[in-house]
Design goal:
single chain; about 210 residues; 7-stranded antiparallel β-sheet; globular
Length: about 210
């Protein structure tokens, strides 16, 4: 019997995909044997990641970091899309082993007037600002890939700053700090519903430019 688990990205019921490919782990189990074989697939439809608990569950790495600088950029094969590499300094890893100075791969877009934007569901990276990144580590390219280009990033200035809910950057009603919020999220992570069952709600991922 072959089972496939897909780890991808999304905002509410809509999938938001970047240029990066995502890994699909296929396992073939039977007679008590287990074999994991990684394959790569692009343009995957995504589960609902409208809650941070869903995002954490689908991620191998969740960490807070401060952006240092953009180190490179190139155009993708999609018109108006840019793939950017940013150097960031890890403040704290909530899940996974991110530490020190690492590279985050990001997706940005150029609109019809030539202005660079983060795209739907994403946030723009700015040197000096803090963010929480959730996604996977690309060992081949030695960089972290937030879900959906930048869908898996949250503007979160400092660990002791008031946490923002996923609801369009609104302040968290619980009064949690960024650190408290993500520690709780990782502890209570869970899978989101399938895309067909997902509906937009008050806890949607914050819109581009949202945050503190």
């Amino acid at each position: 019997m072959k089972r496939t688990r897909v780890l991808a990205v999304g905002v509410a019921a809509a999938a938001v995909l970047g240029a990066a490919a995502f890994t699909v782990w296929t396992s073939d189990s039977g007679n008590k044997s287990y074999v994991s074989e990684p394959t790569v697939q692009e343009d995957l439809l995504a589960p609902d990641l409208s809650k941070d608990e869903y995002l954490s569950y689908a991620s191998t790495d969740v960490f807070h970091a401060r952006v240092v600088k953009k180190v490179s950029q190139n155009e993708t094969d999609q018109a108006g899309e840019l793939e950017q590499q940013w150097q960031v300094k890890v403040t704290k890893a909530f899940k996974g082993n991110a530490e020190g100075t690492v590279i985050v791969n990001a997706i940005a877009y150029v609109d019809s007037e030539g202005n660079e934007t983060a795209g739907e569901g994403g946030v723009a990276l700015v040197p000096g600002r803090g963010y929480v990144f959730a996604g996977h580590y690309d060992a081949e390219n030695e960089r972290y890939e937030p879900f959906g280009g930048m869908t898996g990033a949250r503007l979160s200035q400092d660990l002791d700053s008031p946490a923002k809910s996923a609801a369009r950057g609104a302040a968290s009603e619980s009064g949690e700090t960024v650190e408290e919020h993500w520690e709780r999220v990782v502890t209570n992570e869970r899978p989101g519903p399938p895309v067909d069952d997902a509906t937009p709600g008050s806890d949607m991922v914050e819109a581009p430019g949202g945050g503190q």
